[in-house]
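thread: overnight batch results

M.L. [08:02]
morning all. the overnight job finished for the chain we discussed friday. pasting input first so we're all looking at the same thing
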Amino acid sequence: MAEGKKNLILTGWSRPEYVAAAAAALEALDGNADLAAVSMMRLAAALSECDARYEAIYVLGVGLKWNIGEILEALKTLKARKVKTVWISAIPVAPEFAAEVCLEGIDPATRGFDELLDTPQETLVDAVAAYFTKLDRESVRFYHAYANRVEDRTSIVGKYQALIDAAGFIHRIRRDDTIYEATIQALYRRVKPTEWDKCLVEAYEEFVRFGSRELRGVSPAMDEIRMRIQRVARHERARILILGESGTGKETVAAQIHMQSPRKKGPFVAFNCASVAKELLEDRFFGHDKGAFTGADKQTRGLFERADHGTLFLDEIAEMPLEAQALLLRAIQEGTIIRVGGTEEISVDVRLVAATNQNLPRLVRDGKFRADLYQRISTILINVPPLRERREDIGEIAKCFWLDMGWGHLTAQQLNDLEAYDYPGNVRELLNVLDRARALEEEDFAKVLKEHIAINKDLWAQGNDEDAVSSARPELPDNLNAAITQHVKSVFDKNNQNMTATKEALGISMNTLKKYLAKM
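M.L. [08:03]
and the structure it wrote out:
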């Protein structure tokens, strides 16, 4: 290798075989390589950004379905700079691409995997190729040798698997690639979990704590929600009200807000306001001192103290009785609480995120919910649409869940069967269907759904919460201008207060929209 030259390893994203293959390549190169993770869509750009400081580039397991023309141009440029490129993958290359590549002097695959361009190090290719013989999640066991060389292999492999999942999770949430690259380096060096760097330990702990709280979906509505979360999460004093039918994932949205906020290292405490009798709510919120009532044999912290310096998520807040609403309002306004049976005011620093599947403005109008509390908890509104209004998310959620559970890939027919149903119970019901299919070991999802619908036909007979959120506004006033203004406000909230989306939905100009919003 020329003096000062290095290698570059470009590996696929967040699957065990990609990580193990990259670690194997790194070992074959004696650690003399930079690392970068790339997706199919980013591959052309990644190759174009490479320069002559690299002697060789190893592309591991990245498919060739996007920007083929740009990839070929990048390869020509690299070849002119005398940079070797080795492509190793178990996925066959499209014939038209292979033909074009052959024109550039690239030899076809010869070992049951695709090896493109020169292969300067047979040992590297052989080592890496083994990790692409299977692509399902069950194949994670075959990278044991890179996890450790000690007796407690199963435990360590499990922790490395969670770390790999954590790296992908953090990339999707924060677009941070450093944990993924550090994971590959740790696997290459055979670092035991007890000796992981601080950044890996924190990533692992965050995934264990919040890994199940990821928003899945590819619809514009979900993209808008993610963008909105990113914008508002950093404003840790802004209180947020999440609207959505039961089962849409409101608690997941709340957890995402917490994870992306300055409070992410603090506690995230979730509480369902409908889960306890109204007489017990004060004790749940504020705790009690020893001797406060019969049976109070020790001091107990309430939700506000437990969530201090973190986030308190109150689900089904519309179920809270008026008396408890007054107590909650005071705690929010004053930033202090008093335990039941106590006299001392205790300062608490809590970000409040609330959620409901009911029409709060209508409850305010009917005197069932305090107007001042409603104003306090709804600085920002986030509306989570029901699954039937974002059908493109059904397949994505199902695929991710099936893979996360280690059950492999869903077929196109299975996905089509799943997408044919409305899911009045939303995401929660979809996951129930998938669990049923797995428990029954039934691959015919149409059959599973038919049975599911028959069993639950009476459950949804009276409809669901559609009236609660999609119509979360009072009845229109008689005055035309007032009615128009109220409708604009409703569409504005429905689009998560995105002015561009609201303008397009209403079919009006931005100036007209601003005029109506100014009247609110």
